[in-house]
Design brief:
Number of helices: 2
Strand content: 25-35%
Distance between the termini: 13 Å
Structural class: alpha+beta
Largest sheet: 4 strands, antiparallel
Length: about 140
């Protein structure tokens, strides 16, 4: 009885940790995409954007070139002649995205990552249950 309870507690703990980890949580991330020279688009991973998102653009030395809110389409317009090396979008609610000149956006496909997370949880649970059963049989 004790080993079953321990296994359930461990499983519950792991499940809660997975839900609380921000790197694994997929509620919605934020993306900052250069659509064309002079236009940056902000959007959440699942679509949409916050109208209070502020975008700040910087040059190569880190000097601020401009700052402003996105428009009703989630776009921030700036002078295309500016040499923007980096831009940061912040919605004021904890979501942040960054654009860097010449760096491709890397994203993992969500379904395989989610399946992988649950597979790891299952393996850990099986290991703990086997150990608990072995201890119980030895007694």
């Amino acid at each position: 009885m004790k080993s079953k309870l321990t296994g359930n507690v461990v499983l519950g703990f792991i499940f809660c940790m997975v839900l609380l980890l921000p790197g694994i949580s997929y509620a919605h991330g934020m993306l900052l995409i250069l659509e064309e020279p002079g236009v940056l688009r902000v959007e959440y991973d699942g679509g949409g954007f916050s109208p209070r998102t502020e975008v700040t653009i910087y040059d190569k030395e880190g000097n601020e070139l401009g700052k402003g809110l996105v428009d009703e389409e989630g776009k921030y317009y700036f002078d295309p002649s500016l040499n923007v090396h980096r831009a940061v979008a912040d919605d004021g609610m904890g979501h942040r995205a960054e654009y860097k000149e010449g760096v491709q956006e890397k994203s993992l496909p969500k379904i395989p990552v989610i399946i992988g997370v649950f597979a790891v949880i299952a393996v850990i649970t099986i290991i703990f249950n086997k150990r608990a059963n072995q201890k119980q049989q030895q007694q």
